[in-house]
Amino acid sequence: MSQLYVVGTGPGDSQLVAPKALTAINASSDLVAYGLYLDLLGGVCDGKTHHDLPLGEEIGRARLALDLAASGKTTALISSGDIGIYAMATLVFELLDLQLQGKESHPEWLDVEIEVIPGISAMQAGASRVGAMLGHDFCTVSLSDLLTPWETIEKRIHSAGSGDFVISFYNPVSKKRDWQLNSARDILLQYRPAETPVLLGRQLTREDESIRIIRLDQLDAKDVDMFTMVSVGNSESKHIVNGSKEWVYTPRGYSKKL
Amino acid sequence: MSQLYVVGTGPGDSQLVAPKALTAINASSDLVAYGLYLDLLGGVCDGKTHHDLPLGEEIGRARLALDLAASGKTTALISSGDIGIYAMATLVFELLDLQLQGKESHPEWLDVEIEVIPGISAMQAGASRVGAMLGHDFCTVSLSDLLTPWETIEKRIHSAGSGDFVISFYNPVSKKRDWQLNSARDILLQYRPAETPVLLGRQLTREDESIRIIRLDQLDAKDVDMFTMVSVGNSESKHIVNGSKEWVYTPRGYSKKL
Q1: Which partner for B212 in A6, B23, B43, B200 could form a disulfide, CB atoms 3.0-4.6 Å apart?
Q2: pTM recorded for the entire structure
Q3: Residue B249 is nearest to which of A94, A160, A247, comparing CB atoms?
Q4: ipTM above 0.95, yes or no
């Protein structure tokens, strides 16, 4: 019996980790994860063998997880957020697919039982902290052009603009990438008003969380880092202020019926 | 002190409910929810006053939750999935907004402390059960034209098609609506191959869960009901079969680098 759990642990707050995720980690002898994620989880990881690899070594991490599980060690491959959304889960299945095509030489991978456990993604954490920003049709776009050509990304931003979707940008900037977010903003300004609300949510649900609500025309990559969720409202999203509290919501249109 | 928790309880499996959601429910004296959701939660709801309203009475439910909280009763407004995604959260803020504009006469609503607690949405449950369908850019489209004109929905489907997003359809059919899903399929067939994998996930993560993976050209509203999540892959999503297991994943493009 060889078992691999592919586990998302949510945005950071330990109270947003699903019990199913903790049970899977608890049942595992080996954890494959970026170290920071495990620090957020605390005690459940004690006594497990922890395999870390540098950020950027995503393929190596998926491969290691399959190898460990295939060797008989119950293994959890872990990432924050939802591991199925821009994260490690898809790499496990890409590797399996390559094996099925005979392009890898690890037939033992095909005997691994795999269970994927979803988690709460950053866009959801952000939307909930400011109200209900994802109340109507939305999309996600990764601004990383390491694996996807910029032409494809640009086309998607145009589509998201013309479709008037609420948009959450994953990987908005990195140390080496700083211009994509401003390009994305300029594209969206062709489709929706300058005053469209934008959420900048940094370290969401964590101790050092900070949240800002700005206008689309104020969005600037210099205010954003790798730990920031950027969500842009649609043309109907509203920013409301009630005393010291402020909220963003995207209506479904019920109030037209009131 | 008046407190309203706006709580998502995930797709159904009690092991996917965040501890934060249970804590909020536990702290509440009054629960506003569709009865079925509470049955799935079990014991934590015992001894609470349960306010149910018929499906369709969404505005009434949000209003009732604000009224109860404003009267001093700690209240939880509950829905399955993520309450911020096509669900009740946005209605609470629509009502607050109307009050701020002077279009309601409930100034007491403005003193209610509101906390929104996200949950795992059906698209995530579906993607995880078949592997990693949401591994790259995706969008959601509600096919309900009760509040959104069909022209807007149709335009969004075209945008989702041209942008090659993975698409999850919420509210794909209802007792009174049966043609929208087939129209959506026909639109998407203009943009992506007939063999594009489609997930039909019914009662996801619940005891009577059923999962089918079909081709886009096989998608038919007659095979779908209100409890079915319909997710359509993008042009690169792959359906793979490993013995008795089958998976769908949407690659990010790592294997091009192998």
Answers
A1: B200
A2: 0.97
A3: A94
A4: yes
Minimal Cα distance from A251: which residue of B?
A: B90
Kind of pairing between the strands at B30-32 and B49-51 = parallel
Shared-domain flag, residues A87 and A156? no
With a cut of 70, say whether residue A230 has pLDDT above it.
Answer: yes
Residue range of the domain that includes B189:
123-257
Q: Is the dihedral of CA B236, B241, B242, B244 positive or negative?
A: positive
Nearest residue to A132 via CA among A192, A205, A197, A39: A197
Task: List the single residue in A with minimal CA-CA distance to B166.
Answer: A139
Picking from A85, A120, A155, the residue at the C-terminal end of a domain is: A120
According to DSSP, residue B134 is labeled T
Is there a contact between B210 and B168 (Cβ–Cβ < 8 Å)? Answer: no
C-alpha A211/C-alpha A226 separation (Å) is 14
User: pLDDT of B146-192, one tens digit each?
Assistant: 889 999 999 999 999 999 999 999 999 998 899 999 999 999 999 99
Residue B239: list chain A partners with CB under 8 A: none
Q: How far is CA A248 from the centre of its chain?
A: 20
Residue A115 host element (H or E): strand A113-117
CATH value at residue A75: 3.40.1010.10
pLDDT band per the 50, 70, 90 thresholds, residue A84: very high
Residue A56 and residue A62: Cα distance in Å, rounded?
A: 12
Q: Are residues B140 and B110 in the same domain?
A: no
Judge: B242–A96 Cβ closer than 8 Å, yes or no: yes
CA distance B71 to chain A (A): 19
φ/ψ (deg, to 5) at A248: -125, 130
Same domain flag for A143 and A112: no
| Confidence band, pLDDT 50/70/90 cuts, at residue A257 | low
Closest Cβ–Cβ partner in B132, B137, B162 for A89: B132
∠ CA B236-B239-B244, rounded to 5°? 165
Chain A residue whose CA is closest to B240: A97
